[in-house]
Amino acid sequence: MSIPSLRERVASEFPAALLPLWAVALLLPFGRSAELGVLLCLAGCLLLRDPARRASLRGRWPLFVALWACYAGAAAISALDAVNPDKSWGTVLAALRLLPLGLYAALVAAAPARQAALQTGIAVVVAFWLLDAWVQAATGWGLAGAPEAERLSGVFGSENLKLGPVLATLSPFLLIAARRRWGWRGLVAAFVLVLVPVLLAGSRASWFAFGLVALAMLWTETRRPLRFAAALALLAAGFAVAVVVAAHGSSAFDARIQRTLQALSGSEANVDFALAGRARIWQTSVAMIEAHPVNGVGVRGFRYAYADYAAPGDTFVQPDGSGAAHAHQWVLEVLSETGAIGLLLWLAGIVAAVRGWFRADAARRAAAFAPALALVAMTFPLNTHLAFYSAWWGLLFWWLIAQYCAALAGETEIPAHA
Questions:
Q1: DSSP category for residue 317
Q2: Virtual torsion, Cα 334, 337, 341, 346, nearest 10 deg
Q3: Predicted confidence band of residue 249 (pLDDT cuts 50, 70, 90)
Q4: According to DSSP H, which parts of 250-291 are helical?
Q5: Does residue 342 contact residue 77 with C-beta atoms inside 8 Å?
Q6: How does residue 102 score in pLDDT terms, banded at 50, 70 and 90?
Q7: 55, 266 in Cβ contact below 8 A?
Q8: What is the pLDDT of residue 416?
């Protein structure tokens, strides 16, 4: 195939209009650089001059706006009497930057073909990260250097241990793309490709999140209880083998397993040790919630209020009076920082998102399945989490929501000049 024809094929299968959204995924390992994708989405919205395109937003943007209003509204109400007003109001203002993601996704990625192209592009990025992670696991060196002492760090680097959470969250894109391209064999291969780096990344929350993704994909393949149970038994056996092999091949992974097993002793000290101190953080967050039940201590104010509610001798309390950065669980994060009002707004957003799913037809649900499953893995409440009001994790969260809303409100075709 000649270079011009290859270029034309790539352009037809992955239009340039999708690049700003794809850039968010591509730049995730580089910290705040992912904000460049948001800036490009904003520029795309401002440069769009097609009246028909703008008019079409009236039916395709309301869900995203409603969800954003719940998120930003909870933050704004919490900021009224926040413990650190500058930090809280700064977070509220920063939430405005998320609106172009939803607007731009509705403009350029609403059609199923565009969604499929974008999701394939994301799968390619995830596959590249996985290749680097496998090389790092095998050789002790990857594109970002050596792994962290206890965890595989991959392209994110040893100072930024987010490989596990991001792989688990974005794994649906790779699994679905492999299933679409190579059938169930591709799905199995992709599952193994993701499983080992997720295990070696050492994030137990990521193990659980990827387990949820695997269960959901297994159900979509079987659709019948008996077939699902049989496939689940095979999946469990394969997972057990992977754990045993990883434990024997990696002393760091074995240490994570042994630390996790400490929770089975039942003693408070061992449970806290197994949870890496999160039990203390959760106890402090509960005390914070009891003291500020209505609108919390203020969004992103957790660390500044922590010392006032921590138990004596809590090692998370720093000499400058700050403490743990966030609650490490999204329900506790929302309750402690934005109060009951904030949680009610979040629950209203969840109801709206679920209603949007059930009101969409089968084709739109299929287009939205990858971001929907990623969001479920990311937010499942019986797990631990990164901070959803932080700049980086919050951006990933809203980037997925933008795709989800655009797919559910998708159009049947894209104008030739778009």
A1: -
A2: -20
A3: low
A4: 251-261, 268-274, 278-291
A5: yes
A6: very high
A7: no
A8: 38
State how far the Cα of 134 lies from the Cα of 130, in Å rounded to an integer: 6
Tokens for 380, please give them: 């499942």
Copy the structure tokens of residue 212.
């949820």
CA distance 46 to 35: 17
CA separation for the pair 105, 233 (Å, rounded): 39
Q: Has residue 413 got a pLDDT over 50?
A: no
Q: How many CB atoms lie within 10 A of CB 91?
A: 25
- Alpha carbons within 13 angstroms on the beta-carbon side of residue 126 total 29
Show the CA angle centred on residue 290, arms to residues 289 and 292, nearest 5°. Answer: 60
Q: Is the pLDDT of residue 363 over 50?
A: yes
The residue type at 165: P
In contact, 25 and 127? CB cutoff 8 Å:
no
Measure CA 400 to chain center: 7
294-306 core/surface letters (b: 16 or more CB in 10 A; e: else): ebbbbbbbbbbbb
DSSP string, 127-194: HHHHHHHHHHHHHS-BTTBSPPSSS--GGG-TT---HHHHHHHHHHHHHHHHHHHHHHHHHHHHHHHH
Residues 6+ apart with CB under 8 A from 410: 60, 110, 111, 112, 115, 363, 364, 367
Whole-structure pTM value: 0.91
**Is pLDDT above 60 for 221?**
yes
CB atoms within 10 A of CB 222: 15
Q: Which two tokens stand for residue 10?
A: 């790539």
Q: Could you tell me which residues are beta bridge partners of residue 145?
A: 142
Q: 145 — phi, psi (to 5°)?
A: 95, -155
- DSSP secondary structure string for all residues of 361-381: -HHHHHHHHHHHHHHHHHH-S
Q: How far is C-alpha 118 from the geometric centre of its chain's CA atoms?
A: 17
User: H or E element: which one contains 265?
Assistant: none
Report the alpha-carbon angle 70-73-75, nearest 5.
Answer: 110
Q: With beta carbons less than 8 A apart as the criterion, state whether 288 and 326 touch.
A: no
pLDDT at 3 exceeding the cut of 80: no
Q: For the chain, how long is the longest CA-to-CA vector?
A: 70
Distance, in Å, from the CA atom of 410 to the CA atom of 418, rounded to the nearest integer, reads 15
Structure tokens of 374? Answer: 């990623």
Q: Which SS3 state, helix, strand or coil, does residue 315 take?
A: coil
